[in-house]
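Structure in, sequence out. Go:
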C-alpha cells in the first residue's frame, strides 16, 4: 500500500448499544487492529447517553407487551435511530472521525427458537411465568425472532458514516438464537493461555461466556448462554418498592440491609428456564413485569419486608448464575470476570463470591477491558469483522449450525441530513 493511501480496513470504529435495562445508549469509540487471535482494541472514549424523557417509557411498555400501532412503532424506530446517531456524533468530539459504526440498536422483542423452550415444568409451588408460555406463542414458528429498533440506514444518513446494524437476524435465519453474540469477541479479547475464565455480563439479563485456556481446540470448547435475570427483576422491584422514586439499588445497599429468604430462592430456581440446557437465550418477555408480580406475591407468603425482597431477588440472580455453571459447564472456571451494570452492585458481587467459594470474582476492568463499555466495544468489533468478511457468531453460543457474517451494511454518504449535523452540530429533529 502506498503510504499516503487510506488503509483498506477501518480502524476507528464506534460501537453503540442500548441493552435490556433500557438505561441509555452506551457508546464506545475504539481503535481496532488485527483480526482474531491478534485482535487488539484501544478504547479512546466511552459514554452513556440517557434516552430523552418519554422514549424509555415507550420502549419499556413495548417490552412489557403493551400493544402499539404501526405508526407508533415507526415513530419509535426513528426516534431511537436519531438518539443513536446523536450518540455517535457526540462520542467523536475531540477525536479523529470514525470510519464505521456498529449499532446494535434497542431490543424490543426476543423470541428464542421454539424447540429451545421445552424443559422441566415449573412446580405448582410457584406459578411463575414459564418458557412454556413463550413457547406456545412460537409453537408454529420454529425459528427465533428478535427485533432491534433504531434502523441502521437512517443512522448512516444522519451521520454520513457507514453503519452496520441488525446483527442478530442472520444467525436466527439459520436456526440460532441470535444471542448471545458478544462471546466470540470475549474469546479473542479475554482468553488466557492457562486460565479457564467465565466472563459474566450482568445487565438487565445475565449472560456468561466460558472460555477455556487458550490451547488445542479451545475455541470449540467455549460455551455461552443467557443465565436468566441480571438486574431486570431487581430494577422492577426497586421501582415498585420505592413508589417510583428509585430505578435501581445503588451498590446493592438496600438489599444488603435485608436477609435473603433461601426457601423462596430454591422455589424460584425450579422455574424451567434455569433447567434448560444451553444454548439458550431469554429477555424481558420472560424475566419482566409478569414475572416480578408473581415474585412479589410469593414474597408475601413469607412476610418479607422490602429489604428482604431485594436481598432475595439479588440472591436469585447470584444463585441462578452459579447453579448454571455447576449444571452446564464441563468444568468450573479458575476465575470469574464480571461486566455490565450489575458488576457495580457490591452486594451482588459479594453474594456471587460467597457462592463461588475459592474461585476469585473480579471485573473485566481488572484485566484491562472496560466492564461498563464491553458490549459497545463488542459491537464495534462485530462491525469491523463484518467489514472484513469475518463471521461474528459462535455456533456453540447461539446454537446455529454454522458461522455466518453478522449485520447489514448501510453505506454512509454525504447527505442533506449529515450536512445539517456538520453545520449545526446536532442531529436534525423530524
Ligand atoms: N452502582 C450500581 N449499583 C447497583 N446496580 C447498578 C449500578 N450501576 C448500574 N447498576 C445496574 O445495572 C443496570 C444497567 O446495566 P447494563 O447497562 O449493563 O444493562 P444493559 O446493557 O441494558 O442490559 P443487557 O446486558 O441485558 O443488554 C442498571 O439498570 C442497574 O440495575
Ligand atoms: C436479544 C438481546 O438483545 N439479548 C441481549 C440480552 O442482554 C444480555 C443477554 O440478553 C444477551 O443475550 C444479549 O446481549 C448481548 C449484547 C449479546 O448478544 O451478547
Amino acid at each position: 500500500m502506498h503510504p499516503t493511501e487510506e488503509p483498506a480496513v477501518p480502524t476507528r470504529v464506534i460501537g453503540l448499544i442500548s441493552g435490556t435495562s433500557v438505561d441509555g445508549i452506551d457508546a464506545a469509540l475504539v481503535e481496532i487492529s488485527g483480526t482474531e487471535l491478534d485482535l487488539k482494541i484501544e478504547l479512546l472514549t466511552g459514554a452513556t447517553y440517557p434516552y430523552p424523557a418519554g422514549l424509555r417509557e415507550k420502549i419499556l411498555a413495548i417490552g412489557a407487551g403493551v400493544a402499539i400501532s404501526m405508526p407508533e412503532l415507526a415513530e419509535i424506530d426513528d426516534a431511537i435511530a436519531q438518539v443513536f446517531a446523536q450518540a455517535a456524533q457526540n462520542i467523536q468530539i475531540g477525536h479523529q472521525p470514525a470510519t464505521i459504526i456498529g449499532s446494535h440498536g434497542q431490543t424490543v422483542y426476543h423470541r428464542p427458537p421454539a424447540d429451545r423452550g421445552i424443559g422441566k415444568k415449573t412446580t405448582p409451588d410457584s406459578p411463575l411465568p414459564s418458557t412454556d408460555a413463550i413457547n406456545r406463542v412460537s409453537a408454529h414458528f420454529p425459528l427465533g425472532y428478535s427485533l432491534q429498533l433504531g434502523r441502521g440506514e437512517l443512522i448512516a444518513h444522519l451521520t454520513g458514516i457507514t453503519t452496520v446494524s441488525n446483527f442478530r437476524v442472520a444467525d436466527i435465519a439459520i436456526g440460532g438464537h441470535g444471542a448471545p453474540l458478544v462471546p466470540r469477541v470475549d474469546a479473542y479479547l479475554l482468553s488466557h493461555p492457562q486460565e479457564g475464565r467465565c466472563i459474566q455480563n450482568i445487565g438487565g439479563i445475565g449472560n456468561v461466556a466460558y472460555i477455556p485456556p487458550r490451547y488445542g481446540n479451545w475455541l470449540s470448547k467455549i460455551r455461552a448462554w443467557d443465565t436468566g435475570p441480571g438486574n431486570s427483576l431487581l430494577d422492577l422491584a426497586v421501582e415498585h418498592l420505592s413508589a417510583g422514586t428509585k430505578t435501581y439499588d445503588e451498590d446493592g445497599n438496600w438489599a444488603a440491609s435485608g436477609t435473603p429468604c433461601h426457601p423462596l430462592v430454591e422455589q424460584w430456581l425450579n422455574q424451567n428456564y434455569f433447567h434448560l440446557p444451553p444454548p439458550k437465550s431469554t429477555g424481558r418477555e420472560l424475566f419482566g413485569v409478569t414475572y416480578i408480580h408473581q415474585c412479589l406475591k410469593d414474597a408475601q407468603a413469607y412476610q418479607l419486608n422490602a429489604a428482604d425482597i431485594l436481598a432475595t431477588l439479588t440472591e436469585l440472580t447470584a444463585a441462578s448464575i452459579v447453579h448454571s455453571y455447576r449444571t452446564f459447564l464441563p468444568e468450573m472456571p479458575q476465575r470469574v470476570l464480571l461486566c455490565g451494570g450489575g458488576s457495580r452492585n457490591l452486594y451482588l458481587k459479594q453474594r456471587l463470591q460467597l457462592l463461588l467459594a475459592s474461585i476469585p470474582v473480579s471485573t473485566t476492568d481488572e484485566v484491562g477491558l472496560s466492564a461498563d463499555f464491553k458490549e459497545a466495544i463488542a459491537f464495534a468489533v462485530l462491525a469491523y469483522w463484518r467489514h472484513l468478511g469475518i463471521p461474528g457468531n459462535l455456533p456453540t453460543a447461539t446454537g446455529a449450525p454454522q458461522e455466518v457474517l453478522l449485520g447489514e451494511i448501510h453505506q454512509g454518504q454525504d447527505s442533506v441530513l449529515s450536512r445539517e449535523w456538520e453545520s449545526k452540530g446536532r442531529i436534525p429533529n423530524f
